[in-house]
Each structure stands twice: as C-alpha cells, then as structure tokens.
C-alpha cells in the first residue's frame, strides 16, 4: 500500500528506471566482455545504447504522462539530453580531477548526484511535459 503511493511520484519512478538502466548497462558490459570477448570500450558503448533505448521506453510509457508528441521527436530530444548529460559528466570529472585536484571518486560522487538531476529536469519539463492546455483541462 505504501509502496504504491510512492509510485505516483515521477521522480521515484525515474530513480527506479535509472537503477534498472544501470543494471542493464553493467549486465550487457559483463556479458559481452566475459562471454563473447568483445573489447570493453565497444561493450560499454553497446551497453549504453541498449540502456538508452530501454530507459526511453520505460520513461515514456511508465514514468511520465503521455504528452501526445510523436515518439521519434521525443526520442531525439531524449538522445540530446542524454548526450548533454554525458558531456556534463565528463566536464565535471575533468574539473574535479584536473582543476581542483580532488580524487576521481569524489568527482564520480558529484556527477552521480548532479547528472541525474540535470537529466530528470530536462525529461520532466521539456521532453515529457504535458502541454499547458491539457493540464488546464485535467484540473
């Protein structure tokens, strides 16, 4: 009963999708490297693409309300936000390690906090936002 009430919040669903995506990414990486002897960089790239597709479908159909926007347009927006998140991740790691001189794990902690918030806000208020006209009709 309590669990169900928490699932009405998109940020909780977004976190669940994020955890699932992390598991899929690591699972694909390990599977490809250990069983199929795929180089790690290639394997993590494939894992990223698989995770991107799975998390897009889950966020579109479960985390956020349907917006009525075409899935192709939404997917390209999603791809853009994820790419910006990747660049933000790299920039934050570079700044913490090379400019500030902190250990890389502190940079990883910072990026683990900042990048998901960045991506969530863009997902919620740009990609999967419900048009204001529909919001007024619902209230």
TrEMBL record:
User: Which residue windows are coiled coil?
Assistant: none
Keyword Ubl conjugation assigned: no
Subcellular localization: Membrane
Q: Where's the GtrA/DPMS transmembrane domain? A: 13-128
Predominantly, its location class is membrane
* Chain ranges passing through the membrane: 12-32, 38-58, 78-97, 103-122
**Its membrane topology, per UniProt?**
Multi-pass membrane protein
What are the entry keywords? Answer: Membrane, Transmembrane, Transmembrane helix
Give yes or no: UniProt keyword Secreted. Answer: no
GO BP: any one term: polysaccharide biosynthetic process
Query: Which InterPro entries does UniProt cross-reference here?
Result: GtrA_CellWall_Glycosyl, GtrA_DPMS_TM
Q: Name one GO cellular component term.
A: plasma membrane
Q: Which family does it belong to?
A: Belongs to the GtrA family.
Q: Which PANTHER family match?
A: PROPHAGE BACTOPRENOL-LINKED GLUCOSE TRANSLOCASE HOMOLOG (PTHR38459)
Protein name as annotated: GtrA/DPMS transmembrane domain-containing protein
């Amino acid at each position: 009963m309590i669990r169900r009430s928490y699932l009405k919040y998109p940020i909780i669903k977004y976190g669940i999708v994020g955890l699932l995506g992390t598991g899929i990414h690591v699972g694909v990486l390990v599977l490809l490297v250990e069983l199929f002897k795929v180089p790690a960089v290639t394997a993590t790239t494939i894992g990223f693409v698989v995770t991107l597709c799975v998390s897009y479908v889950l966020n579109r159909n479960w985390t956020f309300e349907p917006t009525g926007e075409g899935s192709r347009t939404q997917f390209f927006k999603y791809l853009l936000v994820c790419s910006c998140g990747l660049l933000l991740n790299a920039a934050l790691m570079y700044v913490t390690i090379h400019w500030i001189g902190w250990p890389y794990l502190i940079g990883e902690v910072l990026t683990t906090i900042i990048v998901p918030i960045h991506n969530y806000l863009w997902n919620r208020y740009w990609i999967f936002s419900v048009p204001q006209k529909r919001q007024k009709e619902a209230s």
